[in-house]
Each structure stands twice: as structure tokens, then as C-alpha cells.
């Protein structure tokens, strides 16, 4: 392989092999198409015109709808479809994904063009050679898998490392038993079922003595744990994960361990005073599995966090990190820039009710601002007088308080609270400082036993609002009551996104099953219903949804067949 200069790229797409699986009239159209080099995928849906998607836009390839014969023609010319409904074309990188009906018959195909782009990692060649683990982040289609493939080749061929690729859907090395030549001398291990990916990661280390392991789409807690185990054995990891930015991983409880994990720590009085924060703060739990993270914003503009531990620490303390930005200029040269740290400015804004509420209010900054002795301890009066001089006044809450309302949670799940606020678009901001709060939200049981909390509330002249339990249903009711909003009846429907922590398909499907059971059978017919067996985490969110309808539910049966039973009121 010829050594390519930074910014110089060589593309191999094996496009003729992909065209050969398509019906004849589509082959002729695409073979002579002006945008053939920019083709991303061909979509064939039963009863609809075939569509080609390009880098810029899409277009119909024919006015004739796709027939079952067309789909069967394509299916017979590709490999076997696996459990994730993906297949490929042998010795190519193309991916064929199927859509099936309820009977399992294929009614749609997405034929994605797979390209091997040599020279794509010129932006981070120095990081690849550093022998440190690297995590790639970015939206779908930005080129994460392409970069992963090129990294494997460079490590195996140029740096002479023992590289093993864990290829779950044959997307990295292509379909068939022989890997695509773009991998060089890197070895590939295929995974029989996607849920076994974490086991294959451990098996690769134990059986094949790799120096580098390449893994695409780390998406479960078991895979994150396997990645940490591999890194602790001294093996370099190159992987991708779901999420556009590093902040997404910190907020994702499933994948947070990749960047060190998050834990709540109680500080001493002196340390809390020195930091200018409350006593309970979030801190990184362990060293990151991946010391380096790369955010692929565009194909030729990447943001590099060369010290993930430092970046995570800054984000948890409310600071703005200062990563590198690497891009390729018009001359094909790699340009590295590092912008100066941003400074936060306080702004006085009037936010209209019903808009997307953001933490732009002066009290939501998370910092205690010292005031001269002549000013009052709580400067709302001065702030209100400034607003009276402006042309517009901020909206007011049910008790005349200024919106957005700032809540200080005590023993209430901050994750549930922020999820409810963001999903329902409520004019509420969660604050870490009791000095900046308008109200304290806590559990009814804690208020009875916490005289210190009542003393703090009295000292700062802040009312206390209580909820019955630390569940999503109780938190939503408490926030609606706090804002003076009328609680919707079950007949008005429910936003399932409130009860899905990660929003994946399994959670939404389980919640939809419970919703239909309640609204179609339990409430109107007053009959109990048993749901399908689910995991413990899925059953927990189903219980919370049932509580929203003010019904009771119980889990029964033995694992893995344990399931929910819903009872009428």
C-alpha cells in the first residue's frame, strides 16, 4: 500500500458488485448516473418507487413501484441475513439491511454502499501511533466505521501490531469468511448474535494474544465492562460508541464507564467552601477506559480530547473544556487549532412562556457570586427593578414567582427530574445551590426526619414542596402541581419518553405494551392483564408507567420468564 500524505485519500467502493444484485433496469440507471461517486444507499420498499440517496439529496430511480419479484431477485444474490437483519456481498463492504412484516417476509431493503477510504485517519495518525485507546464519537454516516477500518489497517500493516477486529454485523471487514483487503493483515472475529459481542471481546484477548482490539458500536453495559477489562490487561482499544459528543456519554448511565463513570461525593465544609459549591457534588469515579476521545463533527473536521479524564472533570465542575480541533484545509494540510477557554457571561433575559427553557437565568449558573455588604443577601429585588426598566417583563408562575422556577432537589433523583423537565418542556431549572433556589423539592419521608432541611429552608426563606415517592409518575405530578398546571387524565394519553431512561426500542416497545393493556383492557373492562416476560430494568419502568395511571402492578414468575400483572382500580 502506497503511503498517503495527510489529507490525501484513496477510495475503493466496489460499486459494480453492489449494482449486480439490483434488478436490470436499476443497474442501467445507476451505472450512468452523474452522482454515482456520491451514492450512499439504494432503498427498495415494496409498492414504492426505488430511491437512491446521495451525499446531497435523494431521487427516485424509476416510476415503477418495487415488486416482490424485485426484492426476491436482490435477496437471492446476497449472503445470509443474520439475527440483526443484515447481510452483505462477499469480499465487499456493502451492507444489505432488511425490513420484514409480521410474518417475517422481507418487504424492504436498504442497500448501503461500503467504501474503503485509505488516508482517512491522517488527522489523528499521531494519536493512533501513541498506543493509547481511542474512542470515536459522531452521528450516523459521518464515517466512524470507515475510520475504524483504516485504523486497523495502519496498526496491522504499518506499525506491525497484532490486531483483532470484533465484527458483529460484518460491516468492518465485509461479508464472507475472507476479510476485505482494506483491513490489511488485521484479523477478524465474527459474532454469531449481537448480544454476544461482549463475550467475543473477552474471548479475543484470552485466545489470540492481540495487542490491539477494534470494536464498533459499544452500546450496552456489558460491552462497556468488557472494554474496561480489556484495557486493564494492557491491550489498546479502538472503538466507537453511540453519541455525538463526550457530554452525551457522561449523561448516559449505560456508557458512562467508558469515560470513568460518575459518582456523587460529599465534601467537607472547608472543601465545599473552597470550591464554592454545595457539599454533594458529582465526580469521576475511575480512570477512563479510553484516554483519548475524538468527536467526528464532519468528515474532515474532528474535535480531539487528548486527555479525557481532564475533560470529564472540567465538565462535571461546570467549566468549558478546551479540546483540539483538527481539520484539512484547501491544500490538503492538517490544521490543528485550540481555541481559548470560553468565559461564561451573566445575561438578563426575558424568556417567553412555552418556549424551549434553557439555563440562561442568572441564578442557574451554578456559581455563588459575592455581593458588596450594602446589597441584600438575596438580590431578587434589584434584579426585578432592572427588569421593570426594560420593555418586557418576564412571565410569572402561579404564585407570582419569576419563571423559570429554580428547584433544589433533596433526595430526589436528579436524572428523573431533568428528564421530566426536558421531555415536558417545563419552565423549570434544576440548581445545585440552595442560595439560588426558589423552592426545595424533597420526599415526604425525608421532610419528617430532616430537621436540618427545615432549618435551611427557614434560613433562606425558601418553601419546601414534597412528593410521595422517588418515581417518574410522582415527580411529574409534583412539578405540574408546583406550576399550577392541571393534571391530565389518563384518557389524554401519556408521553412514553418520560419513562424510557435511554429511549431505545426495547424500552419503548415494553412501555407501549403496558399502555395498550391499561387503556384497552384494564381501565375500560376492569380486568387484570399479564404482560410479556421482561428484564428487571424494563419491568421497573413498566411499574412506573402503571403508577402514572394510579393502578397497581406486581411482578411474578421466575427469571427469565418474570413478568408484570396489572390490576384494575
TrEMBL record:
A GO term for molecular function = nucleic acid binding
> Which SUPFAM superfamilies does UniProt cross-reference here?
P-loop containing nucleoside triphosphate hydrolases, R3H domain
Q: Which PANTHER family match?
A: KINASE-RELATED, P-LOOP CONTAINING NUCLEOSIDE TRIPHOSPHATE HYDROLASES SUPERFAMILY PROTEIN
* Membrane-spanning ranges: none
Q: Which UniProt keywords apply?
A: ATP-binding, Nucleotide-binding
User: Which named protein is this?
Assistant: R3H domain-containing nucleic acid-binding protein
Q: Which Gene3D superfamilies match?
A: P-loop containing nucleotide triphosphate hydrolases (3.40.50.300), R3H-like domain (3.30.1370.50)
Please list the residue ranges annotated as the R3H domain.
505-569
Protein species of origin? Pseudocalidococcus azoricus BACA0444
Amino acid at each position: 500500500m502506497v503511503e498517503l500524505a495527510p489529507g490525501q485519500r484513496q477510495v475503493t467502493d466496489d460499486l459494480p458488485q453492489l449494482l449486480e444484485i439490483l434488478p436490470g433496469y436499476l443497474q442501467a440507471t445507476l451505472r450512468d448516473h452523474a452522482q454515482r461517486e456520491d451514492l450512499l444507499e439504494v432503498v427498495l420498499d415494496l409498492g414504492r418507487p426505488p430511491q437512491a440517496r446521495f451525499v446531497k439529496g435523494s431521487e427516485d430511480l424509476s416510476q415503477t413501484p418495487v415488486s416482490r419479484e424485485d426484492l426476491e431477485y436482490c435477496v437471492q444474490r446476497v449472503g445470509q441475513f443474520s439475527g440483526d437483519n443484515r447481510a452483505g456481498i462477499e469480499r465487499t463492504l456493502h451492507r444489505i439491511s432488511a425490513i420484514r412484516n409480521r410474518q417475517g417476509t422481507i418487504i424492504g431493503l436498504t442497500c448501503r454502499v461500503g467504501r474503503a477510504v485509505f488516508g482517512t485517519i491522517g488527522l489523528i495518525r499521531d494519536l493512533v501511533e501513541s498506543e493509547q485507546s481511542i474512542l470515536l464519537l459522531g452521528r450516523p454516516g459521518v464515517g466512524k466505521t470507515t475510520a475504524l477500518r483504516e485504523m486497523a489497517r495502519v496498526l496491522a500493516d504499518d506499525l506491525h501490531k497484532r490486531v483483532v477486529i470484533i465484527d458483529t454485523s460484518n460491516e468492518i471487514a465485509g461479508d464472507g469468511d475472507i476479510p476485505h483487503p482494506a483491513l490489511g493483515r488485521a484479523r477478524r472475529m465474527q459474532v454469531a448474535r449481537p448480544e454476544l459481542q461482549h463475550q467475543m471481546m473477552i474471548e479475543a484477548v484470552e485466545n489470540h494474544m492481540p495487542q490491539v482490539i477494534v470494536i464498533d458500536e459499544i452500546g450496552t453495559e456489558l460491552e462497556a465492562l468488557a472494554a474496561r477489562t480489556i484495557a486493564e490487561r494492557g491491550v489498546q482499544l479502538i472503538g466507537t460508541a453511540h453519541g455525538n459528543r463526550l457530554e452525551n456519554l457522561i449523561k448516559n448511565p449505560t456508557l458512562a464507564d467508558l469515560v470513568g463513570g460518575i459518582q456523587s461525593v460529599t465534601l467537607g465544609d472547608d472543601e465545599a467552601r473552597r470550591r464554592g459549591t454545595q457539599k454533594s457534588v458529582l465526580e469521576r469515579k475511575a480512570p477512563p477506559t479510553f484516554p483519548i476521545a475524538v468527536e467526528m463533527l464532519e468528515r474532515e473536521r474532528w474535535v480531539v480530547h487528548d486527555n479525557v479524564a481532564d475533560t470529564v472533570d472540567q465538565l462535571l465542575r461546570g467549566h468549558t473544556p478546551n479540546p483540539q480541533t483538527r481539520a484539512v484545509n484547501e491544500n490538503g494540510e492538517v490544521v490543528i487549532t485550540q481555541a481559548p477557554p470560553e468565559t461564561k457571561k451573566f445575561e438578563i433575559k426575558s424568556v417567553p412562556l412555552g418556549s424551549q427553557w434553557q439555563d440562561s437565568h442568572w441564578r442557574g449558573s451554578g456559581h455563588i457570586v459575592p455581593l458588596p455588604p450594602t446589597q441584600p443577601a438575596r438580590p431578587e429585588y434589584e434584579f426585578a427593578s432592572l427588569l421593570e426598566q426594560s420593555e418586557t417583563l418576564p412571565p410569572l408562575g402561579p404564585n407570582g414567582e419569576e419563571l423559570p422556577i429554580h428547584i433544589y432537589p433533596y433526595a430526589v433523583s436528579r436524572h428523573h427530574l431533568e428528564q421530566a423537565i426536558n421531555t415536558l418542556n417545563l419552565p423549570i431549572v434544576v440548581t445545585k445551590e440552595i442560595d439560588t433556589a426558589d423552592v426545595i423539592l424533597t420526599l415526604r419521608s425525608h421532610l419528617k426526619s430532616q430537621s436540618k432541611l427545615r432549618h435551611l429552608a427557614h434560613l433562606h426563606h425558601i418553601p419546601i414542596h414534597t412528593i410521595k415517592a422517588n418515581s417518574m409518575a410522582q415527580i411529574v405530578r409534583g412539578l405540574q402541581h408546583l406550576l399550577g398546571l392541571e393534571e391530565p387524565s389518563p384518557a389524554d394519553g401519556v408521553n412514553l419518553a418520560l419513562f424510557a431512561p435511554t429511549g431505545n426500542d426495547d424500552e419503548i416497545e415494553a412501555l407501549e405494551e403496558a399502555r395498550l393493556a391499561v387503556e384497552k383492557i384494564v381501565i375500560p373492562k376492569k380486568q387484570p392483564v399479564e404482560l410479556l416476560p421482561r428484564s428487571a430494568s424494563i419491568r421497573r419502568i413498566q411499574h412506573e408507567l402503571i403508577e402514572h395511571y394510579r393502578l397497581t402492578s406486581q411482578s411474578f414468575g421466575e427469571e427469565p420468564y418474570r413478568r408484570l400483572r396489572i390490576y384494575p382500580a
